[in-house]
Amino acid sequence: MHEGMTLSRRQGGPSTATPARDQEGRPVPTPRSAPDRAPPTRSVPLVLLLALAATLTACGAPDGNVDLTVDDEIDMVDGLPVEVDGVPAGESVTVWARLVDAQNRPWTAWGAFEADGQGRVDTAAQVPLAGTWETVDPHGLLWSMRLPDGHHPDPPFALLTEPSHTIEVGADIGGRTATRTTVARQQYDPGVDESDVRDDELVGTLYRPPGDDPAPGVVLFGGSEGGLPAPGLPRALASEGYAVLALAYFGVEHLPAGLEEIPVEYGVDGVEWLATHDAVADAPIAVVGASKGSEYALLVGAASDLVGGVAAALPSGYAWSGLPAFEEQANAEVRSSWTRGGEPVDHLEIGGDARALGAIVDGLRGHPVALDVTYDAGIAAADEDERRAAELPVEEVEGPVLALAAGDDALWPARLADVIEVRAEREGVAERVTRSTAEDAGHLMFDQPGLPTTHMTGMPYVAGIWIDAGGEPSATAAGAREGWAHLTDLLADATSDRSEP
Length: 501
Known about the structure:
The chain is an alpha/beta fold. The chain is 22% helix and 22% strand. The protein has an eight-stranded mixed β-sheet with strand order 10-11-13-12-15-16-19-20, sandwiched between helices. The protein has a six-stranded mixed β-sheet with strand order 2-9-8-4-5-7. It has a three-stranded antiparallel β-sheet with strand order 1-3-6, with no helix packed on it. Helix 4 packs across helix 5 (292-303). The radius of gyration is 24 Å and the shape is globular. The protein starts with 45 loop residues before the first helix and ends in a 7-residue tail after the last helix. Residues 1-61 have low confidence and may be disordered.
């Protein structure tokens, strides 16, 4: 979850629309509702769907064999292109994909296509006539998967806990399934080793890659949801050959209950612990932080000479006020999120104005809550000296810095990443900073690529209230793929042994 509670009038909430299904339980084209923010759906012209339905009703199964071509195995960065052959020219074919997550929730995507003159459909080269995605996109069958009616999108992502999972893929003609197969999608290497870390007051999980060779080290901080970072990303990074310490810094066990006055030294201790571990190579440590964790990552990276680079995902270039534990929020005084040397780190206060009251009312009415105006208000309320004092010292990081922003982030707007660039330029270290903004992507894009993003425009906050994460699902999916590429590039650079020429 995220910072503050300023709400705006972004319409929408969890969708409950049910796609029509054929006798095999597969979706067939039906009109769908207008877009909502969490999760959205996309309307399709009614006349097109009626024509498509009539075509499907009139057509039977083809006389000959229908061939379906798809890879037997795919990695998490791969798309899912499907080819169908042996269909009468001009025939309508619905290609679908389905997986069941660890909560036994079915996720389905589909696209209706017209066979070409050779009786062929290629989902990677054709625009769907209707379906869960709208453009030529070899990844469309993956990111556009959605839940049916009766399955509330909480959490809004597919929970996939095993090293690989099965995706069923098929092609329907005339309302009947003409062919189907299965695809194994690799989520992470089954040889990844996971162990609890409870040393020197640290609370974390160590993810080690397969094999006995020392691996480059990465310390990973989650965001304001607190507790241990979710295992998906560290497992994926360990599969790439990194030893990852996923470190909690509040909200679990003996750590502070709220995100207030967390010592920077605690994160530095985590870096030192990892750097001296037998499983870790003698090379600089990379630090990765997402959302609120990006603040902490930049502060820790600036404070430790063992750090070779920082990846700040969905970042802010300012330090912000803390977030007390939920039960303490009513009477809590404003404190910094962080301390350094026992003193509070200079910060801006999460703000509010007349828009906040209307936003709260909207939230109670079931509309997603956007928090970006809260941070705009905090910036506006501070003078120039206060803003300068709250800037994070990016110039003190001895190595490359990645600022990975989402262009339609409704929690932490992408413009907060501008502060990192401006400070680096002013301090003469602009060449160290790589800024990447995924246009139209939302706050939940920093995850493993290849996951369904249809419901990731929002996330639950408390009962009955959803937080607006922003983003178009297709752009969030593309941002996850681009972000993964930028992240792995940064880690390779940050953990390189600079003692070698």
